[in-house]
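Input.
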Amino acid sequence: MSYIEVVKAAGGAGKKIKNNEYRWNDEILMTQAYIVKFKDDKLVDKEIIAVKGHSKR
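Output.
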């Protein structure tokens, strides 16, 4: 998939965190994010990471 195809599937653009590496936060679960890497505008790797929240208790 190209970056544009991933944007369409995800429903919006990812946040660029490194050259050719983008992050999408899971807006439903709020406890995970997706790191997606591209090379020559083709998806080459994806990773799911845990997102830790900040409790105010």
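Residues 23 and 35 are 5 Å apart (CA to CA).
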